Every structure is written in structure tokens, then in C-alpha cells.
Amino acid sequence: MSATTTPLPSLSVFFPCYNEADNLPSLLNQALLVLPKLAKKFEIIVVDDGSSDETVEVVEKFSTQISNIKLVHHETNLGYGSALRTGLKTAKYDWIFFTDGDGQFDLHELEAFVQQANRGVQAILGYRRQRAEGAKRALMAKLYKLYIDLLFRVHVKDIDCAFKLFKAEAVRSLPLFSTGAFISAEMLYRLKKKRVKFVQLPVNHYLRKHGSST
Q: What was the pLDDT predicted at 168?
């Protein structure tokens, strides 16, 4: 972590989760290590989207010991888009960052995003150098990107990369309706319509240690 990086005034971080009880402890511990160096004050929100495992219990255990960890729980599984919308609605600070609760990204890489935020960029989007899941998922992602670009002309390198930092005022007013995976494309399309500038940064992508993608 660079000593020259200026911490953000305040930062909300949220993790959409569905059955991530085994992955969350290492992710939360990493967040508690990294975030104090990147923000003067921060909150960590876990959005549990109706998990059937012990995700809720894991977060509750952390939150009883650490006051700025918060659980938001959907009683039933509402979909990835709904989890993102809940996270955006719950976040209270000047900047909002989210990544998935599966631990496939390294939060240390958020420092480069904070440096861009300090230069006045309102939307910093990660793109995976290489997808950890292999060639089939990479091909599906390329076809999906082509489809979205033809329809909406978003033109970003990795639409669904779950490693994004936003100025809160840029995203709070967005009218988002998607409940599923289309939420990322919808968010970027609406930001583009508002003429919000994007900066894209490469991030590493790792295989899940526990569980399987849903």
C-alpha cells in the first residue's frame, strides 16, 4: 500500500452474497486490513440475498465485534440486480465500492481506484486481465459484451466485472430496475446517459476457494 495515496473522506463498501459463508471470513478480514488505509471513515455492508447456508450467521458474528460491519438480509433470493440495488440504497458515504462476496478479487488493488477518485474521476471500472473460470466463460462474456454494445453502445472492456468504485452522487439518483445480471449493463448505460466519465483499470481475477458460481 503506497504511503502517498490520499485516503477518501468516506467510503461505503458492499458485498452482494448468496451462500458465501465459507468465503466471507477471509474477505471481511482483508477489507478490515485494507480499508483503513484508503478511507478516513468507512462502512462494510454485506447484502445477503436469501442464502440457505450460514452467511447470515458469519456476518452477525463479525458485526457484533466490529461496529462498521452491517448486514442487510433479503428473506428470499431476489437476484443479483436486487442485491446491488439494496447495496447502493444502503450505502451512506461519499464513495461506493462493491465487489462480490466470493473472494475472487484482491482488495489491495482498490488503491489504484482510489488514486483515480482523488483525480476527480467519478466512475472507476475494473476489467479482468484474464477470467479465472477459463475459456468458455470468457467466450460467453465476449458474446454478451457484443450484444450489449450493439444495443446500448456502452463500450467498456468488461461489463460485469464486479470491482467498481463510484462517486455516490453519480449513482444514487440512477433509476435502476434490473433484478438479475443485467444490472451492470443498465447501470453503465444510465451513467453514460448522464455523461459520467469512466476510467477502466485492470484487476486480477482468482478462482473461488469455496463453493460454485451462481
A: 98
